[in-house]
Amino acid sequence: DGIETASGDGRSLYSGTVPLETTRSGTSYQLKDATRGGTYTGDAQNKTDLCILGICLSRAPATLYSDADNRWGSGANADRASAAVDAQYGTDQTWDYYKQVHNRNGIAGDGKGSYNRVHYGNKYNNAFWDDSCFCMTYGDGDGTTFGPLVALDVAGHEMTHGVTSKTAALTYSGESGGLNEATSDIFGTLVEFHADNASDPGDWRIGEKLVKPGFGKAALRFMDRPSKDGSSPDCWSSSVGNLDVHYSSGIANHFAYLLAEGTGTKVFGGVEHTGTTCDGTTLAGIGKEKLGKIWYRALTVYMTSSTKYAGARTATLSAAKDLYGAGSAEYAAVTATWSAVSVN
Ligand code: ASN
Ligand code: ZN
Ligand code: CA
């Protein structure tokens, strides 16, 4: 008979066994979640898109996953389905973070879901958001530098590119591109904390679950001290707009860490993080919930496509004023923290 939502579970690569809301269709189940706008995950079947200047001549498929017993990532084709479990769980958790914390109903705020493609290409060492399909795509990694790029913080990062695209629409180059990237790292991290998953506890590193020894670093990016990646600046200077957007994001990532956690050493996910300011000041930190509130309001109300670091400072100050008042400790903390990363 008909189609209905069912509760299953999946064995993920990085997040343990996770609950999944799926769709029963006749005698089998589909990896499609009607409780989250119909968000689904499909197999790209190791194919790639052929796109030139944003026009796609062909696209890898997104062949919807199905399963006989609604216990995903086990039994036949377990290996192929496990990456799909991570991707679907990642978009579930990101959906829930935006809904529960910011009362945002999906990427565009209209309740409509999106989709994930996993097993994109061959040993593909990246994941990406694409505005033209309104979808997220994940490679399997080459197995020596990266494993499958489906970790929770990366899923939150990619889905947040969709949110940014539908709100501030920060242009993906120069300083605005760095702010676009940082917005994805900030909310990807806040999603990871919000999920509260014992197998992938929250930290202020990006991609810590998927890097392999061959990469030589413990994560892709480090928000407590972005320069740990060997390329990102910790402090603003007039030349940061010339950097790759995944490096010019460092200043805003550093701001986010310091605003939430302050200076000194703390342990997240079993790993020490140390906050240090560019101006030698000490900061107490106002917590990650307030960071999320301030950055989300700045992104959705005040930032525009051309916002640079100076504009991010005024946008977050306007947000802090709206939320907590111009005379508040939070407003003062935003001021002091931008100064601490040399944005004055
Ligand atoms: N993984 C990268 C990102 O989401 C892909 C890219 O370079 N846009 O930023
Ligand atoms: Zn990104
Ligand atoms: Ca992380």
TrEMBL record:
Full-sequence range covered: 198 to 541 of 541
Residues annotated as domain Peptidase M4 C-terminal: 168-343
UniProt keyword Hydrolase, yes or no: yes
Major enzyme class: hydrolase
Protein's cellular compartments: Secreted
Cofactor(s) required, per the database record: Zn(2+)
Predominant cellular place of this UniProt entry's protein: secreted
Domain of life: Bacteria
Keywords of the record: Hydrolase, Metal-binding, Metalloprotease, Protease, Secreted, Signal, Zinc
Family affiliation: Belongs to the peptidase M4 family.
Keyword Transport: no
Task performed by this protein: Extracellular zinc metalloprotease.
Protein name: Neutral metalloproteinase
E.C. code: 3.4.24.-
All copies of domain Peptidase M4, residue ranges: 8-165
